[in-house]
Amino acid sequence: MGLLRKMVAACLVLAATLVCAAADEAGLRQLVARFAAANNFQATEAVVRELGATGAPTVEGLLTALSKGALYVRKADNAIFIGDEAGPDIKLRDPLSGEAVGAVAKAGLTKIKVNNTLRRVIRDALGGLTLGSDEPAVRLAAADTMFKNPDPATIAALDAAIAGEAVGSVKARLEQARASAVLLSDFGQADKMAAIDILSSRADQDALSQLSRFQANAEGNLREAAGAAVATIDQSLALWQLGQNVWYGISLGSVLLLAAIGLAITFGVMGVINMAHGEMVMLGAYTTFVVQQVIRDAAPGLFDWSLAIALPMAFLVSGAVGLAIERGVIRFLYGRPLETLLATWGVSLILQQAVRTIFGPTNQEVGTPTWMSGSFQLGQLVITWNRLCIVVFCLAVFALLLYVMKRTPWGLQMRAVTQNRRMAASMGIRTPRVDALTFALGSGIAGIAGVALSQIDNVSPNFGQGYIIDSFMVVVFGGVGNLWGTFVGAMSLGILNKFLEPYTGAVLGKIMVLVLIILFIQKRPRGLFALKGRAVEA
User: Fold this and answer.
1) C-alpha–C-alpha distance, residues 294 and 297, integer Å
2) Closest CA relative to residue 177, chosen from 199, 153, 192
3) Which residues pair with residue 111 across a beta bridge?
């Protein structure tokens, strides 16, 4: 008997649920039917708002179709359908279930017209419908949409969503969306004061805009409270903007460091003014392009690994070319810096023309892997993944190079040659071999810099020319041959550039940085961190 009672109770619950569902659907269909009598945009808007207030997910397809101009009234019986054009006829679908119900000639239907204002109302209604989604990300996006497009008519739906929300971050966004709607409503002063506090805690540009508009029309205590909130947000945004400029400066500094770190080695150890250094960077970028082309043709599934594959290839290509330049040209010109400058400048022109002949003069497309695409927000900081990856990669290269210089026999030999070439040679160090391998190392590092820089700049035969002057400035400012000096110099110049650009412009900002470096070198000719040695000229 107990089992029988439970079965009967379950059947009653199921029957009640089906009856309620049928009643709800009947009510929705009555609402939908009112579109036929809506003879202007205002009447259509009223129906849209009522449908959105139901929270029923079944009306999402109907509202989407209305926004696209695909909702029709059948002239024969004033029934509402979603229509898909198919030649002279229009295929009809049920507005709630989406099931196909036949086709009608275009002459037998009347399209329900929409304008931009109505589309915005539909968008807000769709945002309200997604508040009941099972996915927190969908609910979060709906809350953001309703926050940016506040409407007092959505407050009831937001209250229901807030009451049932279990995820803290989503609930906070829903409360902010409700606060933005309250400011436009006819609620009392207490409610609006609470809304101002909520928006003030959000402290972003959207909250600032809404509070500024509200302040312009408010009076008395509400106006004062809104003004205080606006001032607080202004101060907060100013601090975030400062942080954003610092991040942009670090990002630019990492680019400068990648481009200059190879030059710091060759210039510091060998005293060679290598005007072809930018072309080593260019060769690394073109190696990346070739690797990606091969992967696209042979193994498209490996494209996300293309940069990892290109890194050793770029190092080997640029390093081999650098070794050939040192053995073929530079070793005959040691001690003659002006002739070295002219010779490497000629080599740079040859390399540019060779690349122009092989790949053409136009920019080449270097793709970005999916894991480096897009951006994310940290507070009010907007950080792109490709820039973040370049910063991390730059720090990794710098740490690896420090290890090589400080912890390996080869690094010891390089430092010995840097400090006193003659003494190093007299101690048995083969300085020509150190010169050749050092030049190859510096060129190889420039090549892997080209892999990273190909993600943020156009790859062309003139790719390296944009970095050679900045690289020399970083090396000279930081201290010739000093890796830590190069690091500090790159970051300092990057941050200084980003703080000057908003006031002077990009070009004038670079000129001012150059002037400041010239003045600095007058006081400290050896840069920030001058190497100390035992040679007479040191």
Assistant:
1) 5
2) 199
3) 72
